[in-house]
Amino acid sequence: MKNYSRQREEIIKVVKDSYNHPTAEEIYMIVKAKDPAVSRSTVYRNLGLLVESNLIKQISMKVGPDRYDYMRKNHNHAVCTKCGKIFDFEYSFEYDELQKSIKEQTGIEISNDGIVFEGICDSCKN
């Protein structure tokens, strides 16, 4: 990313400090509370730029808005299909072998090597 932006830095900080994988709207509300002059379009546009630059990760959700994650270290996600909460987990996958196997079986070149598991969290089970 070429140009420095104070607002972009604040967006990165919000995502980095959030362990709950916030939505774009949640990020906007936090940034807006700190900087009332920031517009929704500025936040959304900068989120797109940060994802393109691989500074943050966009997690596409089947239901509900996408969520964002700061790339602290390689990790994967487990998503509760009832409440939508996202949990980080670490597990060592042989990504190169997995990608090769997927390519051989399907012809698909993998562009996103994050793994997402779905299920129901303990809170929703109770």
Strand % is: 15-25%
Number of distinct beta strands = 5
Contiguous low-pLDDT stretches (5 residues minimum) are: none
Report the biggest beta sheet as strand number plus sense, adding barrel if it closes.
Answer: 3 strands, mixed
Count of runs of 4 or more consecutive helical residues:
5
Tell me the structural class.
Answer: alpha+beta
Mean pLDDT: 89
Q: What is the CATH third-level topology name of the largest domain?
A: Arc Repressor Mutant, subunit A
So, CATH architecture of the largest domain? Answer: Orthogonal Bundle
How does this model look, in words?
The structure is a single chain. The chain has 126 residues and is of the alpha+beta class. It is 41% helix and 17% strand. The longest helix is centred in the middle third of the chain and has 13 residues. The protein has 2 domains: 71 residues, Winged helix-like DNA-binding domain superfamily/Winged helix DNA-binding domain (Arc Repressor Mutant, subunit A, Orthogonal Bundle); 54 residues, Ferric-uptake regulator, C-terminal dimerisarion domain (Dna Ligase, domain 1, 2-Layer Sandwich). It has 5 helices and 5 strands, in the order αααββββαβα.
Question: Mind sketching the topology for me?
Answer:
Blueprint: H1 6-17, H2 24-34, H3 40-52, E1 56-59, E2 67-70, E3 76-80, E4 86-89, H4 95-106, E5 116-119, H5 122-125
Parallel strand pairs: 3-5
Antiparallel strand pairs: 1-2, 3-4
